[in-house]
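Protein modeling request. Please complete all fields; requests missing the sequence field cannot be processed.
Requester role: graduate student
Desired output: 3D structure, token encoding
Chains: 1
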Amino acid sequence: MRRVRGVSDEIRIDGMAVSPGVIDKIVTVAVESVDGVASLGPGGITGMARRAGGRDVEVTASEDGAIAVTVHLKVAYGRPIREVAAEVQVMVADAIRSQVGQDVERVDVYVDAIAFGEQERAARSHAGA
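Delivered output (129 residues):
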């Protein structure tokens, strides 16, 4: 597997090259369409530390073009985490298959945080003030 980064690492499928940014956007839209996903990536101190060295979406492709995706996200409080994660896996795999025409080997979902709605929005607005 190789990590997909930068334009030079495009994914090649049957003579077509797909930029990693395209795959990232497909994954982001698919994840954000799932009911119960509050946002990509964690929040707070943990989120800032992880973002310094990591990404919310990571895409890798094997030599034969099979795609593996890792997604870090925050789930809305009260939503069943297992169900939300399973729906993310299905939506991401379906979106890549339908838009890129390539098999998805796996979609790994990491739930890094829970969003508590208004309380969290208030905390973020105070932190940014």
